[in-house]
Design brief:
Layout: H1 2-16, H2 21-28, H3 35-56, H4 65-76, H5 91-96, H6 108-127, E1 130-135, E2 141-145
Antiparallel strand pairs: 1-2
Helix pairs in contact: 3-4
Length: 146
């Protein structure tokens, strides 16, 4: 989404000040062929996937799951409303978007279990070469190290 926003910004700035074309030509010359089109396809694919998952799962019981999923997807993919790639959505914002959320604090046992797992991973990362750990409920895991 950032690349697409940059392209739109470049077009707007070049329309206002054609001298900026040289600057943007230099920037965009570093992109491989079809890169911008691939970005468009990825954004469209992500939007469709998120909307479908919401519509068919979390929001399926809503009176109008299609509209509810579209509203939530638009909020989640609001590039201009976020400040970073790894933007976190606070619980109030998620509820505002129509997502079904429950505060972790509402279930103290679950909160303690999740914090225990979090602390175990923090300690593991601090004392090993592990960079990424994925483990499933069957005891299978995948660890990426330095």
């Amino acid at each position: 989404m950032g690349v697409l926003a940059e392209v739109e910004r470049a077009l707007e700035e070049i329309r206002k000040d054609p001298v900026k074309q040289a600057l943007y030509q230099h920037i965009f010359s570093k992109y491989p062929p079809a890169f911008v089109l691939d970005c468009e396809r990825q954004v469209m694919g992500s939007a469709e996937m998120v909307e479908r998952w919401l519509r068919e799962n979390m929001l399926a019981d809503r009176p109008d799951p299609i509209s509810a999923a579209k509203k939530a997807r638009q909020g989640l993919m609001d590039y201009e409303g976020t400040t970073e790639h790894a933007h976190h959505f606070m619980i109030d914002k998620c509820a505002e978007l129509g997502l079904e959320v429950v505060p972790l604090e509402a279930d103290q046992d679950l909160q303690e279990d999740i914090l225990s797992v979090h602390h175990a991973f923090v300690a593991t990362f601090a004392h090993t070469d592990a960079l990424k750990i994925i483990e499933n409920g069957n005891g299978q895991n995948w660890v990426v190290t330095n």
